[in-house]
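Researcher: We plan to redesign the surface later, but first we want a full-length starting point. Tokens attached.
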């Protein structure tokens, strides 16, 4: 387990004895066994203080979901010959980024077949026994599960993920032969997603008059990453978070979600469900674009609500610059101090460790 301040834990689950670094279960005789597969993380067993019956509180009580949905944009118009349609498409992208911070794209250039292959590989690696996934030697220690720092249900994410820096994917020694098909598909998808993210970032930067200064245009293969998310079905409480409300700490994120649903984003102080569209990818603005644009583009809070009946899968590509890149604002007077991406990531890590959640951009206000 990727753990902050945890101990060595041994638990018995489905007749297997698991040994790993984790939070010590308080009294797991009294803990309800909720996760049902050998491959699923032992959320309730290891976080028994959070998952006791009496804690079945509602994280998002009586909440009404907004009716509208993030704009759907046809990127085919960017490649077409009609200049008017191209300009209209660029305008739709920039308008969605400042009004919504979220949009959906169709005709995005990433084939259905590639996305389907990736989904098949993704399901296969999550089916591997938990004990193997959690071992630090497994796939270069990029496995994450639950929220090691959580002290309450509101801070806990009922999910597991593999987070691969893009640069590592092409290094064959990070993947044993067992995972060569995973590596091949991920490499293709990472390239396709990088290209799409680059096109979108360029449009957004040029719209603000970017003419080659102060924009960390060279995204870095070591900091951009592909994150494979799995949200096991959650029978503890239907109101558990699959992923707690957060903004992304990057320039922008491209997301492929499955048909289950559960992603919600904030719009005008209301949660709006981003309904699955099998043809669309979801794009959301991250903190760095909000900072760089001096609050013109919006990095919007989003969350995943766990599902009590079915497992959910998603794939996210995070566009990030190198750690040394300076995220200065493109406009004066600037709302934020200049900071490097490295400083930003460190601060997020410190805040998550100390408070269970990130503070984000407001840490860097002038
Ligand atoms: C506990 C947290 C880590 C995280 C920010 C958060 O407050 C909630 C979500 C986490 C997440 C998930 C996706 C990305 O890996 C990430 C970088 C992000 O933007 O949100 C992480 C955050 C993190 O580790 O910084
Ligand atoms: O799974 C999803 O729909 C959202 C994932 C997400 O927000 C993230 O990985 O940062
Ligand atoms: Fe996110």
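Model: Full-length starting sequence:
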């Amino acid at each position: 387990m990727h753990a902050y301040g945890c101990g060595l834990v041994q638990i018995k689950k489905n007749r297997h004895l698991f040994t790993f670094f984790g939070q010590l279960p308080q009294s797991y005789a009294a803990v309800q066994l909720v996760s049902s597969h050998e491959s699923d993380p032992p959320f309730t067993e290891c976080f028994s203080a959070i998952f006791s019956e009496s804690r079945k509180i509602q994280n998002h009580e009586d909440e009404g979901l907004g009716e509208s949905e993030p704009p759907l944009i046809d990127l085919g118009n960017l490649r077409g010959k009609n200049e008017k349609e191209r300009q209209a498409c660029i305008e739709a992208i920039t308008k969605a980024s400042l009004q919504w911070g979220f949009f959906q794209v169709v005709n995005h250039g990433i084939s259905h077949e590639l996305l389907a292959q990736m989904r098949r590989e993704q399901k296969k690696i999550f089916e591997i026994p938990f004990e193997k996934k959690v071992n630090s030697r497994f796939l270069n220690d990029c496995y994450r599960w639950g929220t090691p720092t959580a002290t309450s249900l509101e801070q806990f994410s009922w999910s597991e993920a593999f987070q691969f820096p893009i640069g590592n994917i092409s290094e064959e020694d990070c993947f044993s032969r067992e995972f060569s098909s995973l590596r091949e598909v991920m490499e293709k998808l990472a390239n396709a997603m990088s290209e799409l993210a680059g096109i979108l970032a360029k449009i957004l930067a040029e719209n603000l008059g970017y003419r080659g200064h102060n924009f960390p245009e060279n995204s870095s293969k070591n900091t951009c990453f592909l994150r494979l998310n799995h949200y096991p079905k959650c029978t503890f409480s239907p109101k558990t978070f699959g992923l707690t409300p957060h903004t992304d700490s990057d320039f922008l994120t491209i997301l492929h979600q499955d048909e289950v649903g559960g992603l919600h984003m904030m719009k005008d102080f209301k949660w709006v469900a981003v309904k699955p569209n099998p043809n669309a990818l979801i794009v959301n603005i991250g903190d760095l674009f909000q900072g760089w644009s001096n609050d013109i583009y919006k990095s919007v809070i989003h969350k995943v609500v766990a599902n009590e009946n079915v497992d959910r899968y998603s794939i996210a590509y995070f566009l990030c610059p190198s750690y040394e890149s300076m995220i200065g604002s493109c406009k004066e007077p600037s709302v934020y101090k200049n900071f490097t991406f490295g400083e930003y990531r460190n601060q997020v890590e410190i805040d998550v460790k100390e408070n269970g959640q990130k503070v984000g951009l407001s840490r860097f206000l002038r």
